[in-house]
Write a structure and sequence with these properties.
about 140 residues, alpha/beta, Rossmann fold, 7-stranded mixed beta sheet, about 25% helix, globular, DUF3052, DUF3052 domain-containing protein
Length: about 140
């Protein structure tokens, strides 16, 4: 069962001043999610070419993309997230174009050495699944 996100983005776990890296952006992403994170942190999101450590990350992923690519992206993205910072995979909700099953994300996360939480509704069209390294919370 999906939980529902707040209006201000606190559910992501990012804090003021955090640098959040965004992976696999495309023109179908929900700009309201991006704005919530930027308003919460007071910082612009940085893209996957950013070459310093970050405080957290979001990965936009759609069904039809290669699951192995998702595992590789999770490994690459998490490698620059410091101190087990918030790490999210965002997928279109069921019934939307590109909707991916949470089991696909969970499988890719497991391959990458991560645990996947229960999906959270983060906007009308997108779900978010928080990932943590094995042994780091639930």
């Amino acid at each position: 069962m999906n939980e529902t996100a707040s209006q201000n983005g606190e559910e992501f776990g990012f804090r003021s001043g955090d640098i959040v890296q965004e992976w696999l952006w495309d023109d179908d992403v929900d700009d309201s999610i991006r704005a919530k994170i930027e308003n919460l942190t007071g910082e612009d999101l940085v893209d996957e070419d950013y070459d310093s450590a970050v405080d957290g990350a979001i990965v936009w992923w759609r069904d039809g993309d290669d699951e192995d690519e998702l595992s590789d992206t999770i490994v690459d993205a998490y490698s620059v997230v410091g101190d087990d910072g918030p790490f999210w995979v965002l997928t279109p909700k069921p019934g939307r174009p590109g909707a991916a099953s949470s089991s696909t994300v969970q499988s890719a996360a497991k391959t990458a050495g991560m645990n996947a939480a229960t999906p959270l509704t983060v906007s009308p069209d997108w779900n978010g699944i928080r990932l943590r390294a094995f042994g780091k919370g639930r």
